[in-house]
Amino acid sequence: MLIRSAPDLKDCDVTDHRLYLRLREFIAAGAALGAGLSAGAAQASPLPHSPNKMPIDEKPTPLKDITSYNNFYEFGTDKGDPAANAGAFRTRPWTVTVDGECAKPGHYGIDDIIKAYPLEERIYRMRCVEAWSMVIPWIGFPLASLIKQAQPNANAKYVAFQTLYDPSQMPGQKDHVLDWPYREGLRLDEALNPLTLLAVGLYGETLPNQDGAPIRLVVPWKYGFKGAKSIVRISFVRSQPKTTWSTMAPSEYGFYANVNPEVDHPRWSQATERRIGEFFRRKTLPFNGYGDQVASLYRGLDPRKLY
Ligand code: MTE
After folding, report:
1. What's the gap in Å between 296 CA and the centre of ligand 1?
2. What band does 253 get if pLDDT is binned at 50, 70 and 90?
3. For ligand 1, is residue 229 a contact (CB within 6 Å)?
4. Model's pTM, two decimal places?
5. For 70, phi and psi rounded to 5 degrees?
6. Which atom of ligand 1 lies closest to the CA of 211?
7. What's the CA gap between 140 and 117, in Å, rounded?
8. Residue 223 near ligand 1, beta carbon < 6 Å
9. pLDDT digits 0-9 by tens, 209-248
C-alpha cells in the first residue's frame, strides 16, 4: 500500500540524518557480525525494518530529547521522570491480549508480534496537547495489520487499548494521579487508517522504556495522549470506550483529540507549538499536517467536539 506523506513534506536531507545514518551503519555492522545485543530490558537492540516510506524534510528530534522529555505518568509526572525511573522496567516476557468482538482473539508474546508483521520506519510529527512537538522516526507496523488478523465482527465499532498496571515496577501508579491503568481508544475506522501505527522502536532500535516499551500506539493526527504506551490489551468493543484523560478532565481532553489549531484548550491556545530544540514557535497544522489522509473520517462532525 502506498503511504502518502502530508502535502508539505518532501524528500530532503535533514540535519540529524548524518547521525541517523551513522546509527544505521552501526546497526547494519552489528547485524553482519552477528553481534547478539540481547541484554537487559533497558538495552536497545536493532530492529530490522524496511526503509521509510514517508519522506519528511523536517529535522527529526534528537534521540536524547525523545528519550529525556517524556510524558509517562506511571514513572512520574515531571518530563525527566520516565528516563530517570524506567531503566529497570521489565518488558520481557510481555503478552498482548487481543479480545472482544472478533473472530480470532488471542494472547501473543511481544517477540512473536514483532516477527509476525514487517516493520517499517515512519517519521511522524508528534504534537502534545500541552503545545510542544517533536518529529520522531518510529519503527513499527500498521495497527490495521493486527486488526485484519483478529477479524473484528460487525459489532466492533471501537478499539480499546489498555496499558500495564504494575505498581511494583511503575512507581507513579502508587499515587492516584490518574485512574490506572492508562486507557485509550479509537473508532474502528481511525484504527484502520494506514497512518495508525503500533510502534516497537525508534531511530532503528527497540523502544526505550520511557517511550512506551515494548509496544505503543502512534496516531500522528491526534494529540500525543492518544498514543498509549506499554500496551497489554487491545479489545474490539461496541461502544466508545472510557479513556483516561477524557474521563479525568472531560472539559479539557476529548475522546477524538484531533490536532486543531482553531479549538483552544480551555487553559491555553492550540494555535502554535514549541518544537523541541527550536527557538521560535511554529504554527500548529490542522490534523497535525495529515488532513489529506484523515479529514474525510470526520465529515459532518462538529470540530469543536473533536478536541
Ligand atoms: N501512555 C501511558 N501509559 N501513560 C502516560 O502517561 N502519556 C501520554 C502518551 N501515552 C502517557 C501515555 C502523553 S500525555 C503523551 S504526550 C505521550 O504519551 C508522550 O509520548 P513520549 O513521551 O514518548 O513523547
Report:
1. 26
2. very high
3. yes
4. 0.88
5. -130, 155
6. 23
7. 9
8. no
9. 999 999 999 999 999 999 999 999 999 999 999 999 999 9
Q: Is 205 in the pocket of ligand 1 (CB under 6 A)?
A: no
Which among 126, 180, 225 is the best mutation to test ligand 1's pocket, defined by most ligand atoms within 8 Å of the CB?
225
Cell 511481544 -> residue: 110
Taking only the tens place, the pLDDT of each residue in 82-113 is: 999 999 999 999 999 999 999 999 999 999 99
Tell me, using a 6 A CB cutoff, whether residue 67 lines ligand 1: no
Closest C-alpha to ligand 1, atom 9: 225
CA nearest ligand 1 atom 2, residue = 229
